[in-house]
Structure formats: C-alpha cells, structure tokens
Specification:
- By secondary structure, the chain is an all-alpha fold.
- It contains six helices and no strands.
- Helix 4 runs antiparallel to helix 5.
- The longest helix is centred in the C-terminal third of the chain and has 17 residues.
- It is globular.
- It starts with a helix and ends with a helix.
- 26% of the residues are buried.
C-alpha cells in the first residue's frame, strides 16, 4: 500500500486531477479532513467535477471556508473554460452521448 500511495502522490504532483481526487478520498477516509480538503481544492482547480461536488458537501458541513469554496469554484470554471474550443464543440455534436 505504501508503494501505491507513493505513485499516487507522484501522479497527483504531476497534475493528474483524478489521482488528486483519489488521494483526497484516501485522506478523508483516514480522518485527515484538512489534507483531504486541500487535495479536493487542487483537483477542482484542475477541472475535476467530483471534487467540486465533495467540496460542496464539505462546505455545507463547515469543513471548507466560504473563501476556499469560492476560489475552488472559480478555478474549476477557469479549467473547464480552458478546455473549450470551437473544434471540441463541433466534435461533441458529431459524437452521440448516451
């Protein structure tokens, strides 16, 4: 498990939002909510949707400050906007979604 955690941390540091989200879940399950919140915020700012949802719940419970939640929302929106382009929108029209 230590090696798995080590490689997960390496992937998260390199910018993988899904791994950052997984680390946040791992930290939360081990009772380290302060670290979990930090990981969720970083993943949200990288555009990870699940992190925003978890931050919203943690905000409702009082574990995330209003400022941190607002900052994460702004970062998430910026990341999502950065991935938008006319070419992607055209491709989305061509590929049916289920």
């Amino acid at each position: 498990e230590k090696m798995e955690l080590y490689y997960s941390e390496e992937a998260a540091i390199s910018g993988d939002p899904s791994t950052r989200y997984s680390l946040a879940c791992h930290e939360g399950m081990n009772g380290r909510l302060d670290r979990a919140v930090k990981h969720f915020i970083i993943a949200a700012k990288l555009g990870h949707d699940g992190s925003i949802q978890n931050l919203k719940e943690l905000y409702k419970c009082g574990y995330v400050s209003k400022e941190d939640f607002a900052s994460a929302l702004r970062g998430h929106q910026a990341a999502v906007d950065a991935t938008k382009s006319p070419q992607r929108e055209e491709a989305d029209k061509l590929v049916p979604t289920s």
